[in-house]
């Protein structure tokens, strides 16, 4: 049963990765199904931090869908209210272009808070795993989990640098899953690592073309 769920999660993960590479909003549908499957896989494997992060992924997928679908509209509305200035000229964009969130660089003022969140989550999750679970890889498990929290938020905000985070997460995770004998999942994350590199350049080109 566990292996069947792992295979199903792997196939859904491949679909998720393809949709993410194309910056398709439908990645968030796969982003709801995939963690629901992996909740059971990781719990049985004793990867408790990964088990917990997949509960977070479910909520993040809903947030990501809303941000990608309506983020540009919400951002524009907030800025308009702050400035109280009327728009000039005719807006020739389609309805979807007006509401969907564009790919952008992460603002520099977010870097320090995100680094702080990572450190707190990394140390906090590791201590919880050491004190309250039988995990034999608490620090590696905590590292990928804490970094994934940052990566999911960046993905939901459609920042191109989110790929840098996933390259690190996927490379470490591939080694961790080999150690845990989750071979299908390890292969998936090894593929993630390679495609994440291409994904960064793909998103960068899309961002430049939209400017």
Features:
single chain; 211 residues; mainly alpha; 8 helices; 0% strand
Q: Which strand-content bin applies to the residues?
A: under 5%
| Helical/strand content category | mainly alpha
Number of domains: 2
How many E strands?
0
Description of the molecule:
The chain has helices at residues 2-21, 27-45, 48-83, 95-99, 111-132, 138-156, 162-179, 183-210. The protein is mainly alpha-helical. The longest helix has 36 residues, at 48-83. It is globular and about 50 Å long.
Secondary-structure map:
Blueprint: H1 2-21, H2 27-45, H3 48-83, H4 95-99, H5 111-132, H6 138-156, H7 162-179, H8 183-210
Subcellular location: Cell membrane
Function: Required for nicotinamide riboside transport across the inner membrane.
Transmembrane segments: 25-43, 55-72, 110-130, 186-203
